[in-house]
Amino acid sequence: MERKFFNVILLGFGFMFVFTAFQTMGNIEKTILDSITQDDPSFTGDGYTSLAIIYATLAICNWLAPSVITITGPRGAMLIGAFTYLFFIVTFLFPRTWLLYVASVLIGAGAAAIWTGQGNYLTLNSDADTISRNSGIFWAMLQCSLFFGNLFVFIKFQGKTHIDLDTRNVVFGALTAVCALGIVFLLLLRPIRRPQVLDDVKVKFQETDVVNHEDDGPMEAFKGALKLFCTRDMMFLSCTFIYTGVELSFFSGVYSPSIGFTLSMGENAKQLVGLSGVFIGMGEVLGGALFGILGSKTTRWGRDPIVIMGYIIHVTSFFLIFINLPNVAPFGDTMETSYINPSPYLAMFCSFLLGFGDACFNTQIYSILGGNYSDNSTSAFALFKFTQSLAAAACFFYSSRALLSVQLGVLAVLASLGTAAFCRVEWAARSRARAAALEVIDDKVIPDTHLAENALHYD
Asked: Where are the transmembrane segments (predicted)?
């Protein structure tokens, strides 16, 4: 297997196991903490508050991540971040309110390091021809974490209306072991150096002359991130990032618990929390695998059709959720109903749609950042995670107060804005690439007609 592609596979396995632990925990955290509070009234930790702290800290620390990576390198940053995920999972074996929130701060800082390092490392192991393929494959492997982790939870929560201490400890212990296995895979990652020369078309293709070389020092990396954030294309892409952050917090921390709180779903409502995560994971994996296999095709066709498809899928799922779940479902157990009698089958179908639509957005974001900002990937991915995490934190803060209909309305508006902004950047980049290719041809930099035609495919 080609060395760089093998690195992508190792990266995928590492993140799959680390995030089997974390994403499963995020999906069940609200439900688990409510059960802990019932057993121990002195424990007052709240799942939404914990997740809000995580993403708020992640947003702040993303500004420092490029500087950290200049010191540790992407592999070192990912390892540091992975250990904070392990610590976070372990703390659930010893439930203390203060410890929950301290661990939430630490994992937020670690997440900034692991995700910025991941974006940089994925870019270093990709080129214009493989970035879409590698992004799709990585995303599919990552989202297998939702499938395996939540399938385990589904089995363990079967027939339970209250998650008892023994069940909780078995789940936490298993997730701790899985997270440690992910760290082992990250330790196996091999170093790779960034290519030193960009081709003429690539240089002309970029929106501005903002270049933050990966070898710059910490202060230069920070200044480069600020400068990149103020560019026109990055400002537009931030609208898309904001939407992915809000929908991430909704499907990962609000929607599945809302199903469990809808007691009219039946006696196994709590069990459906894990099953919902399984169906979200199935949608994510299918989307990532599909776009990975079709990576070379999507590069030629453009990324906008996939994002538009994700938009249509998500808006459809929002409407179905609106008519299926009661308005007060995010707040706790309720016997209320919505416009139809709550259907577990429809709820699982919506879970699948949320996952598949999320894959549409995120695989194309990874592709556009890795393709358009390959010489500035550390800052580009840090800004992506900063904006996404800030939006996710805001969503978790209002999730415990806003009715379901309000949350779905916010999602629909942001989806429209985010899709329009992404398409605008994609179309503008395509136009610049054609102009750059023609200019290069005129300058006789690319005398070969076949090469010139390939250059018109801007990525």
From this structure: 7-28, 48-65, 77-94, 100-124, 136-157, 169-189, 235-255, 275-294, 306-325, 345-369, 381-400, 406-425
